[in-house]
Amino acid sequence: MGKIKGAVVVNTERCKGCELCIVACPSKVLALSKQVNAKGYNFAYMANEDACVGCSACGYVCPDACISVYKVKVE
Question: What average pLDDT does the segment 1-20 reach?
Fold first, then answer.
């Protein structure tokens, strides 16, 4: 069996920086960016990409549904 690696894609323009995804992540993958989006919010991004296992906990708790989680098979 191959190893599974996760990838989180955040819609940065919809993200309001509520930090619920950051708290929900068991692998401590996400963080808030120092940059802001068009609405003036700091948005979430993958700060620790190698730690993501694709559990989708961040996507489940996002109130604005701006997080998509993908699983990639690594050989």
Answer: 92
